[in-house]
Every structure is written in structure tokens, then in C-alpha cells.
Amino acid sequence: MSVMIITGASRGIGAATAKLAAARGYAVAINYVSNREAAEQVVSDIESAGGRALAVQADMAHEADIVRLFETVDRELGTLDVLVNNAGVIDRIARLDEMSAERIERMMRINITGPFLCAREAVKRMSTRHGGKGGAIVNISSAAAHRGGAGEYVDYAASKGAIDTFTEGLAKEVAAEGIRVNTVRPGVVHTEIHASGGNPDKPEKSSQAIPMGRAGEPDEIAHGILWLAGGEASFATGACLDIDGGV
């Protein structure tokens, strides 16, 4: 059974990806930072459908937590095949001249440093250079990376732009070692992340600016992630898949 780690998988896109991955035969590690109940519910849903899953608490802001996440998966699920770098945060709508250094540092620590460290741990396990059998990394970026987030959260947009660049560079770095690295760039999706940024109505408000006339659903993003993770995308690396309704 192939093994997948999904960071930030207790809700939204991460939870949808976990359930779809389990339905396709993956043993899935459901990472969460604080909402244990939600993570355990995802595990329960997967197990009820006959799949295998494990909830693992780890804060993407702390290296020790990330290392422990991977070590737990090594011990409990086995050899890692796929990492989905999904965990991320936004903040309250603000202009740059209203942002504190603490806000910016938190954004970059969780949205950039966390995925870097997770990918580092994945490469150590997957790379043929380290005795691994290869694998796939799928980074979750955002349409904000190429739109800039002006007047809302340029810090978030910049953090996702960094992930796009990271994907391209790491893909080239490990392509000959059996690892594919790609990005999915969702547009506005119906998830709880908007409420955490104080803008719960964003999907509805954004609909008129989306060519398809609506926000996306987590399952629609999950299908793109699973495609890039699997064998059907065997010649894709360094790619950026936009799933954003045409923005």
C-alpha cells in the first residue's frame, strides 16, 4: 500500500484529498496542528469506508514537530511515497503598511519554511541518492501567487509565489533521483480558511470575478492533486496546475 502524508488535512482541501487518496488505495497520514477532533473525524470517515489513515499532530512552524511527523509515519505506516504540502495560513485583510513584522514572519514560517522542511524530510526518504525508491511531492500554492493579493494579503501571495519557485527548483534538483515535484494552484475555494482570515463570504463575493461564475469545491482541487501524485502524471515535474475557474 502506497503511503501519503498530507499536511493540514483536518479540513478543506487537505481533508478532501485525504479521503480521495484513501479511496484510491493510499494509507494516509492526516496532519493537523490543533483540531484533533476534526482530524480524527477524517480518519474515522476513511476507516469506515475501508481505508487506512492515521492522525498526527505537528505544527508546521516547528522543525522538531515536522521531523516527528515523518518519523511517526515511518514507524506506523511505512515507506513514504507522496507528500502533499497543503498546510498554510492567511491573516486579516490588510495593506502592507498595516502589517506587523510578527504577522509577516509567521506567514513565511508556516507557508514557506514548513513546506521546505517537509520536502527535505521527504527527499531524504524518497531519493534514490539516499536509497529510496522515488516518489512525488505536490505543493499547494494559490492563484494569489500570480495575482499579488493587493489590498488583501500581499504577504500570503508572496509566500505562495515562493512555493511556485521552490517547486521549479526542487523538481530540477531531484528529477534524476526518482522524485517528481509539482504544484497545484487553486483559486477561491469553499473552505474555512477564509473565515480564519476574517472574510468568510469571500467565495460568494469573488464569484462575479471568476470566469466560470463560481468558487471551487475542495474535491475539485483534490482530483488535481491526486493526478499529479500518481502514475498518470509520470512525465510531469516542475509543473504548475491552475485549478481556479479561469482567473
UniProtKB/TrEMBL annotation:
Ketoreductase domain sequence ranges = 2-221
Q: What is its EC number?
A: 1.1.1.47
- Residues covered by region (Disordered): 192-215
> Which Pfam families would you find in this protein's record?
adh_short_C2
What domain of life does the UniProt record list for this protein's source?
Bacteria
What protein family is recorded? Belongs to the short-chain dehydrogenases/reductases (SDR) family.
The UniProt entry, under PANTHER family, shows: OXIDOREDUCTASE, SHORT-CHAIN DEHYDROGENASE/REDUCTASE FAMILY (AFU_ORTHOLOGUE AFUA_5G02870) (PTHR43639), SHORT-CHAIN DEHYDROGENASE_REDUCTASE FAMILY PROTEIN (PTHR43639:SF1)
Query: What protein does this entry describe?
Result: Glucose 1-dehydrogenase
**Annotated source species:** Kushneria aurantia
